[in-house]
Design a protein that fits this description.
alpha+beta, elongated, 6-stranded mixed β-sheet, Nuclear Transport Factor 2, Chain: A, 2 helices
Length: 134
């Protein structure tokens, strides 16, 4: 059984970790407020790359999708898209020709799976988005 010194050290460490987590959360909130919006003007679906248009078709059909992670919840941790409840956004891979992995292109849709309210395209792995006009 740990002595009083070990218990005191553990309590102090817990308080310090808690204080640090509040500080990090506050910094994230301030960063999100100060950062300019990174949603570019709307892009018509017809102007998307062919792979992105195919991904949109698959979304409307409900799949099947080529990647296991397609359709998972998109957390919007970058806080670029409008804030919605968790689970509202889902992400889908847009195959990138010549890429050995999933690449950087994604479509993120909000709302019902087969009939989303809106979709966004990102070519740079969530650094910026374009709203897709459908």
């Amino acid at each position: 059984m740990p002595g009083p010194r070990a218990a005191w050290t553990l309590a102090l460490c817990s308080v310090l970790l808690l204080a640090q987590s509040f500080e990090v959360a506050g910094m994230r909130a301030a960063w999100a407020r100060e950062r300019p919006a990174r949603i570019a003007p709307t892009i018509p679906a017809e102007q998307l790359p062919a792979q992105a248009r195919q991904t949109l078709r698959l979304i409307r059909q409900g799949g099947p999708f080529p990647y296991a992670k397609d359709g998972i919840v998109f957390g919007n941790y970058e806080h670029i898209l409008p804030q919605r409840r968790r689970g509202y956004y889902r992400e889908y891979t847009v195959p990138t020709p010549g890429s050995r992995n999933r690449g950087a292109q994604r479509i993120v849709c909000g709302g019902p799976k087969r009939a989303p309210d809106l979709c966004y395209y990102t070519h740079d792995h969530y650094a910026s988005f374009q709203s897709i006009a459908q």
